[in-house]
Amino acid sequence: MSNHLRRALENNEFMLYYQPKLNIKNNSIDAVEALIRWQPPGGEMILPEKFIPIAEETGLILPIGEWVFDHACQQIKQWLSQDLPKIKVAINISSQQFNQPNFLADIKNTINKYQIPANLLEFEITENTLLDNNENTVNTLKELSNLGIRFAIDDFGTGYSSLSYLQSFPIS
Questions:
Q1: Which of 13, 14, 73, 132 has the fewest Cβ atoms within 10 angstroms?
Q2: Collapsed DSSP state (helix, strand, coil) of residue 117
């Protein structure tokens, strides 16, 4: 499977689907979540629960995460150029990706590459990312937050943190 994943990256077999996020207060779509899918040539679409764990295990989650972020930013740029309403795009960020030394620089470079407003981005991170509460985690969250990027906790309740613990982070 890891060899197939490497080939999928090389052959651009991934695609993003955008799932609407509905604001129940005013019944409007305020954001979308970028969801990756894998479409091998001539095969059935593969959902992320089948390949993401293997990608995390093999380290392929890093280039896949970069691909997702780049393509989501490219899509934002395209929507902006079409004068569509500005909506946030939520992107899942793996803890491996978040903890890379070049993560912050890569995010800034991609935002600058597409010249998009950072406040149209929301990163969904897991509790486990926050449980590594080291100085780097806190500083990265603050810097990204200062750029205008918002954060949401994905799969809250699967880890060991509490709501009071989360108050020390810039989580929206």
A1: 132
A2: coil
Q: In what order do the strands lie in the sheet with 121-126?
A: 14-23, 28-38, 88-92, 121-126, 150-154
Sequence-distant (6+) residues with CB within 8 A of 31 are: 20, 21, 87, 88, 89, 90, 122
**Shortest CA distance to 14 belongs to which of 42, 43, 46, 38?**
38
pTM of the model: 0.88
Which residues are 122's β-sheet partners? Answer: 90, 150
User: Which CA distances in Å does 99 have to 21, 50, 166?
Assistant: 27, 23, 18
Q: How far apart are CA 146 and CA 118, in angstroms?
A: 10
Tell how far CA 160 is from the center of its chain: 22
37-76: pLDDT as tens digits: 999 999 999 999 999 999 999 999 999 999 999 999 999 9
